[in-house]
Design brief:
With about 450 residues, the protein is an alpha/beta fold. The protein folds into three domains: about 35-130, Fumarate Reductase Iron-sulfur Protein, Chain B, domain 2 (Orthogonal Bundle), CATH 1.10.1060.10; about 145-240 and about 385-450, FAD/NAD(P)-binding domain (3-Layer(bba) Sandwich); about 245-380, FAD/NAD(P)-binding domain, CATH 3.50.50. The protein is about 35% helix and about 20% strand. It is built from 18 helices and 19 strands. It has helices spanning about 15-25, 35-40, 50-55, 60-70, 75-85, 85-95, 100-105, 105-110, 115-130, 150-165, 180-185, 195-205, 220-230, 255-265, 285-300, 320-325, 425-445, 445-450, and strands spanning about 10, 145-150, 165-170, 210, 230-235, 240, 255, 275, 280, 300-305, 330-335, 335-340, 345-355, 360-370, 375, 380, 390-395, 395, 410. Strand 9, helix 15 (about 285-300) and strand 10 form a beta-alpha-beta unit. Helix 5 crosses helix 9 (about 115-130) and helix 14 packs across helix 15 (about 285-300). The longest helix is centred in the last third of the chain and has 20 residues, at about 425-445.
Length: about 450
């Protein structure tokens, strides 16, 4: 929990125990066996399935749904895990409404897609509760790979490399593995301790050593890793948060939204997490929505998301925007912050309406204020520290092909690498693909072809 001092308007225990239990219950309860069969029966099992093309990990969706339909959820899970070893988490957090389900023929024809996400959860949950890992580790190759970051990209890379017989060491800056799956997702999307349980299950492949509380640049350098390992994969995510660059930013309870979400995720008792009476969230992506909705669930009376452009430019999908408004969150667009107003603590935020000009977005002369005793910044993240000797593409590590960086023997993937769309499922795909390229590089293309 944060050590930020309490302010009169930001307090814990605003609601009853029942309200907390209901608010932070499972967002999409799992299907039971009968419901899964009914949902699977709606699939057309398209030959050239558009849902597969829309999936960043290219899961054979018609096949795993057919396997559920024929009473083989374990086989369905294997089909999913072959492409996405974190398929259980992705079933919970993927924006399926803009990926596989949006491409579903049923969605196009009827406006009601097959519930691919919930069917994927049914299959993967069935497999995870058996406690049996579906993969065997190959004979040791003698090669050692260092991975920085135990988030989705790093974990997917580690599992695929370990499965092929390489020895893997993962370094992570936090006490617990999982990355954003553990620290950065709304609590109602992954209830209980699922993220940690999934990591434990993944590690059963063997050959993976986890070193926690070890940060790149602080505790270990890229040069050291390149000297110690035969290959290095960077899945460090984006640990830095952009500054508001507005007066009053240093008031108590003007916070980074990612820190708020992480504190809430790790809180054993949600009732003890303080929240303001009037909350303002600045930003327009998924982090902004998660912070805003959870503020309401904690008992905030008014919650407002303010984004500098139009709703069609928000990073959060229309589904997530609607999810926020259904929980009483107000969304104000076309405005940017000028200052946080207050004395010792925040009292309001002053905004200026924005306008598009030939020179870009500019604040207009029209201003307004929104009362706020708690303000969350969700205006994007950056690399906490750029790794030495690597070429950057803007604020991210430049990569080509299957995650190759400008440095020989170094790969990168996930949010820290260029070209992705900052989704868990995309990070998994990039980690998996980088592992394949690392394997080919270490073993040699000719030996791979002979296998």
């Amino acid at each position: 929990m944060s050590n930020t001092p309490m302010t009169p308007g930001v307090v814990p225990q605003r609601l009853s125990r029942t309200d907390y239990a209901d608010g932070f219950s499972d967002m999409h309860p799992p299907l039971d066996a009968h419901e899964a069969l009914v949902a699977a029966d709606r699939c057309y099992f398209c030959y050239d399935a558009p849902c597969v093309t829309a999936c960043p990990t290219a899961i054979d969706i018609p096949l795993f749904i057919r396997q559920i339909q024929t009473g083989k959820p374990g086989d369905a899970a294997k089909t999913i895990f072959d492409q996405n070893i974190l398929g259980g988490m992705c079933a919970r957090v993927c924006p399926t409404e803009t990926l596989c389900e949006e491409a579903c023929v049923r969605e196009t024809a009827e406006g009601k897609p097959v519930e691919i996400g919930r069917l994927q959860r049914f299959a993967t949950d069935t497999a995870l509760v058996t406690g049996v890992h579906p993969y065997q580790r190959a004979e040791p190759t003698g090669f050692r790979v260092g991975i920085v970051g135990a988030g989705p990209a790093g974990l997917a890379c580690a599992h695929r490399l370990a499965m092929k017989g390489h020895d893997v060491t993962i370094y992570d800056a936090r006490p617990k593995p999982g990355g954003l799956n553990e620290y950065g997702i709304a609590a109602y999307k992954t209830v209980g301790d699922f993220a940690m349980a999934e990591v434990d299950w993944l590690m059963e492949i063997g050959g993976i050593t986890l070193v926690s509380d070890t940060a790149l640049g602080r505790d270990v350098t890229l040069t050291e890793l390149r000297d110690d390992f035969d290959a290095v994969f960077l899945g460090v995510g984006l640990g830095g948060v952009n500054a508001l660059r507005a007066p009053g930013e240093d008031f108590p309870y003007v916070q980074d939204a990612v820190d708020f979400i992480a504190d809430l995720r790790q809180a054993e008792d949600k009732a003890q997490v303080p929240v303001g009476r009037n909350v303002v969230v600045i930003g327009g992506g998924m982090t902004a929505v998660d912070a805003a909705v959870q503020s309401r669930l904690l008992g905030a009376e008014t919650v407002t998301i303010v984004y500098r452009r139009g709703r069609d430019r928000m990073g959060a999908s229309p589904y997530e925007q609607d999810h926020a408004t259904r929980h009483g969150v107000r969304i104000v667009t076309g405005a940017q912050p000028l200052r946080v107003i207050g004395t010792d603590t925040a009292e309001a935020v002053e905004f200026a309406y924005t306008e598009e000009t030939p020179e870009g977005l500019r604040p207009s002369a029209q201003t307004f204020q929104i009362a706020a005793d708690q303000v969350f910044k969700a205006i994007g993240q950056t690399l906490a520290a750029a790794p030495e000797d690597l070429t950057l593409d803007g604020a991210k590590i430049a990569v080509t092909g299957m995650g190759r960086t400008s440095a020989a023997g170094v790969w990168a993937g996930g949010d820290c690498a260029s070209g992705g769309d900052d989704l868990t499922v995309t990070a998994v795909a990039e980690g998996r693909d980088a592992a394949e390229d690392i394997h080919v590089t270490l073993i040699g293309a000719s030996e791979i072809a002979a296998e």
